[in-house]
Amino acid sequence: MSLIVSINEATSLEPDEVEGAAAAQAERNDEPFTISLLLDAAQKERESLDAIEKNMEALRLSLAQRRRVIDQQEEILRDLSQALIERTRKNATR
């Protein structure tokens, strides 16, 4: 049996074969293959979560900025509407 075992091969091994592969790697001062792969996967998942969190923060900032722009647009439109109403009233009284 090879000392380097893939995940697919590992899932098909009998428990004593898995222990044998892990023991052989331990003799070479390597971490058992499953622990090493799980640690790599956990690290990649952590990096992925960090990237998602960073992107979410950028989205929050973008949304806040867009809300401010919409608020400004609404204020301008209200002022314009009020000015048109007043202008119409002035023209009607002439």
Query: What is the count of helical runs?
Result: 3
First-residue to last-residue Cα separation: 102 Å
> Into which percent range does the helicity of residues fall?
over 70%
Number of extended strands: 0
Q: Radius of gyration in whole Å, from Cα? A: 33 Å
SSE string: HHH
User: Which residues form runs of ≥5 with pLDDT under 50?
Assistant: none
Structure in a nutshell:
By secondary structure, the protein is mainly alpha-helical. It contains three helices and no strands.
Description:
This protein is mainly alpha-helical and 94 residues long. It has a domain at 50-93. The chain is built from three helices and no strands. The chain has helices at 7-12, 15-27, 33-93. The protein is rod-shaped. The N and C termini lie far apart (102 Å). The model has no long low-confidence stretch (mean pLDDT 81).
